[in-house]
Design goal:
The complex is a heterodimer of chains A (122) and B (108).
Chain A lengths: L2 E4 L3 E3 L5 E8 L8 E6 L5 E8 L4 E4 L8 E5 L4 E6 L8 E7 L12 E2 L3 E5 L2
Parallel strand pairs in A: 2-11
Antiparallel strand pairs in A: 1-3, 3-8, 4-5, 4-9, 5-6, 7-8, 9-10, 9-11
Chain B lengths: L3 E4 L2 E4 L5 E11 L4 E6 L6 E5 L3 E2 L7 E14 L9 E6 L6 E2 L3 E5 L1
Parallel strand pairs in B: 2-10
Antiparallel strand pairs in B: 1-3, 3-7, 4-5, 4-8, 5-6, 8-9, 8-10
Classes of the chains: A mainly beta (122), B mainly beta (108).
């Protein structure tokens, strides 16, 4: 069974750094893209980008390039989303999601984590 | 960037009625790279339809997807109480991948 389990909610101050995690299981982590999606309060889904763990190929959305950093630790099948300096406007739920196979389909996001709420407030 | 425009923004219907949700792309998309997700309050999105028209395992057959090129449709044949939610279309045809803004299906 494919599972993506994200780290817990965070409350941070503007200017602080943060790294949240997405621990995966039930599939071959290094073979499929894993990505991040933002959902601001009461709003829709926004694609931040994707990372391929095998070669660390990364595609950032132009809207988020330079604002966030993706990484992965293949030894523990975990992906990370990192901020160097948070802003109040980063307050949102962040989901990880993977294109691991579902009914042999390997293109769009097939499985999602439960989300991590990040609150940035002075 | 491919822009996905969903309509209507909100659909007010009664249980048992048919729901038709539209997703229009600013450029042609191969249907293999078009998915639909359902999101309920406080929950992560759930995959409903992949490759434009294939139901994910466990999704009731009252959900169906269709379309090609720039016009795609999600149809719920007879709404059940648990179907009232927000629905998003998503393209993974080209980067940056994008989502539609969502259609909320609410109880009339």
């Amino acid at each position: 069974e494919v599972q993506l389990v994200q780290s817990g909610a965070e409350v941070k101050k503007p200017g602080e750094s943060l790294k949240i995690s997405c621990k995966t299981s039930g599939y071959s982590f290094t073979n499929y893209w894993i990505g991040w999606v933002r959902q601001m309060p009461g709003k829709g889904l926004e694609w931040l980008g994707i990372l391929h763990p095998r070669d660390s190929d990364i595609i950032y959305s132009p809207s988020f390039q330079g604002q966030v950093t993706f990484s992965a630790d293949n030894s523990i099948n975990t992906a990370y989303l990192q901020w160097r300096s948070l802003k109040a406007s980063d307050t949102a739920i962040y989901y990880c999601a993977t294109s691991a196979p579902r009914d042999d389909y390997v293109h769009c996001f097939n499985y999602w984590g439960q989300g991590t709420l990040v609150t940035v407030s002075a | 960037e491919i822009v996905l425009t969903q309509s209507p923004g909100t659909l007010s219907l009664s249980p048992g009625e048919r729901a038709t949700l539209s997703c229009r792309a600013s450029q042609s998309i191969h249907s293999d790279y078009l998915a639909w997700y359902q999101q309920k309050p406080g929950q992560a999105p759930r995959l409903l339809i992949y490759a434009g028209s294939d139901r994910a395992a466990g999704v009731p057959d009252r959900f169906s997807g269709s379309g090609s090129g720039t016009d795609f449709t999600l149809t719920i044949s007879r709404l059940e109480p648990e179907d009232f939610a927000v629905y998003y279309c998503h393209q993974c045809h080209s980067s940056p991948r994008t989502f539609g803004q969502g259609t909320k299906v609410e109880i009339k």
